[in-house]
Amino acid sequence: ECAGISLLSWDYPKHDSLHKKIEEHKVYPITVLTYLSSNQKQTLLQDGVILCAEIAKKPQVLQKLGLSSQKTKAILDEIALLIGSK
Description:
Layout (H helix, E strand, L loop, with lengths): L17 H8 L12 H9 L5 H6 L11 H15 L3
């Protein structure tokens, strides 16, 4: 604080932490998704897909992963719950 540098981390500062900002603005990274493997997440990240909202807007980005329609629906349902689009 004496150097005038603000610190932002997952739980600090208590009322304006990274965790609070993510939840408030609903900008969840795809890494929170439970239905995708690490390799599938990595593929999406390499394609520039970082946020769950990006998948919600363009679900066709999941086609590259070769998922079943059932798994794709589960992922989209999970995203909808996270970002509140349902």
